[in-house]
Amino acid sequence: MNGKDLLLGLGYVDETYIQAAEEKTLRKPFGTALRRYGAMAACFAVLIVATTVFYTRSPVGPTPPGPVVALPDISQPPEFVSEEVTVDMKQVYFNDAIGSQEDIWYNPEVYTITSLTGQALTDYYQRDLTPLWLPDGLTPSKQNGRAEQVIAADGTIVSDMAVLDFYSGFQDDNLPELYKDTNAAKGLSLSVSRLGILPHWDYVLPEQERQTTDIDGIAVTLGVSIRLCEPAGTVEVINAEWESGGLHFQLTAQQIERTDVVKTIASIITGTMNITIIN
Amino acid sequence: MEDNKIIDLFWTRDQMAIEETGIKYGSRLQRLATKILYSREDAEESVNDTYLAAWNTIPPQRPVHFFAFLAKICRFAAYGKLDWKTAQKRQAEVVELTNELETCIPDSAAQAAFDSRELGELLNIFLGTLTEEKRLIFMRRYWFEDSVKDISKRYGIGESKVKTTLLRTRTSLRNFLAKEGIHL
To answer: Which span out of A77-81, A154-158, A159-163, B151-155 was modeled with the highest average pLDDT?
Structure first.
């Protein structure tokens, strides 16, 4: 007997179990619900990304925690400008990116995982995380407005990521809807952390050789990669990473115009929706 | 259209049955087959095979769980078309799932040959021993071949919890097979 036998043997299980797995939902546990990386999860092709670097998945067992970092002081909320901000696309540089690595997994037997919502979320991040400007046609996920905090036994916060998804639509199970022609979601996913522990992106060039883009005084590392999505072929994925207002941000956009991605980033950095993009 | 009405169409040999089935479940079946085959054409073929099999078996059958009935046929059809060697080369999800399930096999059973149907019966018993939460997560991963992220989103739970639940369930399955499998 081998794994294949078990996989095929599962084909014979009772239809009641199959139907239940398709229809039933779990009661929402207060505290651990968080979605991560909608765009990638929505695209089957995430499994066959053409990459020169091969990753192995995290073992499903205890893995080392991420680095423990002291929380930065963000007691003073960032002061946003109110005037118009202009970004020249000729000054925006997209590095060749490869893809994102697996999230760090925290063993719930070792760490306490809680969620922040509502006022606790705003208090923790000292600001509303929703971008002031978003490309037309994107809607927020019902699960936005929630962050997952991972706390070590000694009380140290080792992870504090909030994820906000904005896609063209969502299926009943809250996954982004897939475009019939491309089999890939259209939209963007924003991850925010005070600690700076966010999913790691790999680029073709080493860090010291990557170029950053100055958006209102903030150095933003932008990347572009191509994701294979059967049956259509490929879709463009733009990723961006930056730090501003004491928070670390990471944005992943799929099937979104580059100018719209940059405009979204600029609105997050400057806290205004009055952004002009010059091509 | 409600499942019962679609099944009635099958019973009256009305070809609208196929069309209505496609409208209601076509995309879900296509998704399931695509996850296994990584090929739109092969997946479409599997879905068409599913409709044909449904046409040939209803009547006399009258499925209680219509989607599960179709999905089961579709999964068999897709696996029937799967080239395991190609899947290996493409690092397809199915290979990863196979590797994960490999860890459930007790040493005592590794060399033995098992009939898939008998294994299915054993798995049925095992699934009956699980809590609903564990069963749903296990089924989404190994029956529907959802990624951990997709399961996390579907049920609104953390990926860590999904991984931990799967790990524990696989350990339970290994223990269960070690205990029960020798009787096969």
So the answer is: A159-163
